[in-house]
Amino acid sequence: MSGTLVLVRHGQSDWNLKNLFTGWRDPDLTPLGIQEAEAGGEALAATGIKFDIAFTSVLKRAQDTLKIVLDKVGQPDLETIRDQALNERDYGDLSGLNKDDARAKWGEEQVHIWRRSYDIPPPGGESLRDTGARVWPYYMTEILPRVLRGEKVLVAAHGNSLRSLVMVLDRLSKEEILKLNLATGVPMVYTLKADSTVASKDVLGDMSGAH
Fold first, then answer.
1. Which among 3, 18, 121, 128 is least surrounded, fewest beta carbons within 10 Å?
2. What is the CATH number of the domain that holds 115?
3. For site (Transition state stabilizer), what residue positions does UniProt give (predicted)?
4. Which residues are known binding-site members for substrate?
């Protein structure tokens, strides 16, 4: 019995546009972000997938992206579970700062380490490893069992929380995951085998930025 897991990173947010560290702060989608979510929803609708349940974070940009996608696939009332385990990485003291201002304050090299190392967190925040440490158990206990029962599950979340999942699903090394940037609003459709490994992966729509 093959289940389907679809991962979608939220569309561009207002703070993405302004080059701010967002983390657990809660800005809205931009008009472009809304368009990205609509395009992702239309790409999913074209596949004919009908979902059994959806998961998202407690942050508005992911919830709004999910709502747009569900409208496009004709399932606006789908049962949805919201949990902060799927929240974006917490950037701590960097949250709300312009990335250029952060570089001016702490130095370009230090900010680069915080952004791109696997296990060095910014002050008061989480590393990518810390993010995975809350995402993985939630996935294993709440999401994966449903997929293995043959359900079709949609997850709308964030760049770093989804990178944590993709790292496991695609069996990427720490070095490989640091180079991976997930495109906004572009659905990744996984089918899983009974042993929870990946049978197939299909990235819908624009591949630019998804490398």
1. 18
2. 3.40.50.1240
3. 158
4. 9-16, 22-23, 61, 88-91, 99, 115-116, 159-160
